[in-house]
Amino acid sequence: MLEHDRGDLSSSGGDGGSGVGLEQVPEGVVVTVRGALDLALAPTLRRMVDRAVRLRPARLVIDLTTVTFLASAGMSELVLANRQLDGVVRVVVASRLVMRPLELTRLTDELEIRASLADALVDG
Amino acid sequence: MTTTSSGTDRPAPEVDVLLDALAATFTGVDGTPVPVERRPLRPDQVAGLRAAGADVLVLDDGQLADLELPDLELPDLELADLALADLALADPERGAGAAVVVLHEQGGTALVARGPVGTAHRAAAEAVVAATSGLRRALDALRSEAAVIDALQSVGRQLTAQLDIDRLVQEATNAATAGVGAAFGAFFYNLVNQFGESYTLYTLAGAPRSAFSRFPMPRNTEVFAPTFDGHGTVRSDDITADRRFGRNAPYHGMPEGHLPVRSYLAVSVISPTSGEVLGGFFFGHPEPGRFTARHEALAEGIAGYSAIALDNAQLYERERHFTRELSRSMVPDVGPVPGLELVTRYLPAATGHKIGGDWFDVIPLPTGATAFVIGDVVGHGVPAATVMGQVRTAVRAYALLGQGPGEVLRHVSTLLDTFAEPTFVTCLLAVLTPDDELVYASAGHLPGLLLHAGGAPELIGEAMAQPLGVGHEFPERTAPFAPGTGLLLYTDGLVESRSRDVGQGIEWLVEAVARLPRPLTPEACDGLVQTLTDGRYDDDVALVSVDHVGRRHP
């Protein structure tokens, strides 16, 4: 199953659009965010996470590999997701651009962050 | 019989059949068929005949001359796209004859017979007209219906996209007045001011304002009442002959100097949401019998769109006013603090009218210390603004109780846990003590800039703790803050508007501030916002600049 939800295209950072996709994999659910994860896209991420929560996944990976901007509205959603599924959520961060805001807010202490989707899907 | 295609396209096959059939009805006085010539009409001739517009019409001399058939008199019969004109020879002396004109989609064709003819062709033409007159009426009705819908569609689209009330009402008045063919039109509309009082304004089309400025507002007389009370449309071929007209003092009719009105049409504008009468359109024409049922339908349609547009515009205006007021009331008054140069700014997002969740505060404490606060509640709009108001007050209250920055933030974060909606608030709180020490704690807020008397700005408070509503431990740090030292606190709108990379944005800020003369002036701070955001901040921006300029306790 593969679902996509488009956010506000005007909020994209010139990368052809922002959006959130959801995919069921054997290990659980992967929610992939593209473009600018800001106030405009945050509600879309929330809807996708809610959908993922209803699937009761053993693992929820929020993949921010192709995120070009992480605003506080986006970080707020990451915290919410993590609290809904304690110990289940992993966040994939592959760029400095996304890591920096997470460091400034010390969400790195709370979120389980991995460098790649493959890393996030392995056990342990 | 000859056919030519010059100037006019060949008629469609069914028209060909009709032309052949009609041509066969031309007979001589003895009842035998006579030769008939097909003559295509030029577009201007066709247009001349069509413009007459009625089913049966008699052309005047001018129209005859335009046809360039000078020897023909034209008692013309026209039907729908197939229109006929029976042409009789004007001068029997020069050879009796006749012609029938058929107007069709491709143009027009005259069937011309030379020589004396009987009346059979005339009867045939009349029969065709009679047989198709129902169709013709139906087509006419459909066409005018389509014209009304077209006009409404374009007016509606224009009006409902307009949020500026002044422009909206003028555009509506212009469109409606033109649409119904009135000599002049007026739109009286009610608005509600900020104190909830209703007042009436009007716009005009087709007449200067001076034409009405001497008269009082129309009152609920018998003529006007149905419109202002929302009791339906009033349409009169001659309002001066209406039994409701002229019954009210002082004027008993139109006041002297009023533009002459015979034809009268008035429709109410009723809010689709509240059912309230928002106003009315009034149209006049000095000649009687000008407004038809079609004009009435068009006016009612435009009134319907105007009601939606007025509703939208008033809601929008109310929302904007509310946002402006709320946002202004949220910005604290910062009084002077001895020994400190302070610049504070709150700038709502330059794009859109939304209120944001950023705030700043400067709080003189009973101990002689001064607290500086910068914060950002995630989100926009009223929910973010109300949370911000509560958080700002909580910070103030705990700080005034004498708690240190770490303790204040811890209490506020605990308070946020009791809110129904999860919240995410970043905040940096710095307290300047009477002995020139800066004690600060940060709940996930962007680093502040500590500006030393000489040398590069230093980032302080970076990644000290999690945001309020997330973390619960907020360690404090201390830095010396001697005269000559400065502090700059800001929110993300300043460093994330131009670059989506917050690291890059902070670097630019540090470079820009390093170049500025100290103490920072209000102009320098405004320039900083301009430089860092290119004037296009899509998020709100809050900023506090503190410069320690001398002895604080003289």
Topology:
The complex is a heterodimer of chains A (124) and B (554).
Chain A: E1 2-6, E2 19-25, E3 28-37, H1 42-54, E4 60-70, H2 72-84, E5 89-92, H3 96-104, E6 113-114, H4 117-121
Parallel strand pairs in A: 3-4, 4-5, 5-6
Antiparallel strand pairs in A: 1-2, 2-3
Helix pairs in contact in A: 1-2
Chain B: H1 13-23, E1 36-40, H2 43-52, E2 56-58, H3 61-66, E3 72-73, E4 75-77, E5 83-89, E6 97-104, E7 107-114, H4 120-160, H5 165-179, E8 184-192, E9 198-205, H6 225-228, E10 234-236, E11 263-270, E12 277-285, H7 293-330, E13 340-347, E14 356-364, E15 370-380, H8 381-400, H9 405-417, E16 425-432, E17 437-443, E18 448-451, E19 458-460, E20 477-480, E21 486-490, H10 492-496, H11 502-514, H12 522-533, E22 541-548
Helix pairs in contact in B: 4-5, 4-7, 5-7, 7-8, 8-9
Per DSSP, the total helix count of chain B is 12
Q: Write down the oligomeric state.
A: heterodimer
Give the CATH topology of chain A: Transcription Regulator spoIIAA
- The residue fraction in helices of chain A comes out at 25-40%
Q: What is the typical, i.e. mean, pLDDT of chain A? A: 88
CATH architecture descriptor of the largest domain in chain B = 4-Layer Sandwich
Q: Unreliable runs of chain B, pLDDT <50, ≥5 residues?
A: 1-8, 53-65, 70-96
Tell me the number of strands of chain A.
6
Distance between the termini of chain B: 118 Å
What share of residues of chain B is helical?
A: 25-40%
Strand count, sense and barrel status of the largest sheet of chain A are:
6 strands, mixed
Helix-strand makeup class of chain A: alpha/beta
Rg from alpha-carbon coordinates of chain A? 13 Å
Give the overall form of chain B.
elongated
The CATH class name of the largest domain in chain B reads Alpha Beta
Q: What is the end-to-end distance of chain A?
A: 25 Å
Largest sheet of chain B: 5 strands, antiparallel
CATH homologous superfamily of the largest domain in chain B? PPM-type phosphatase domain
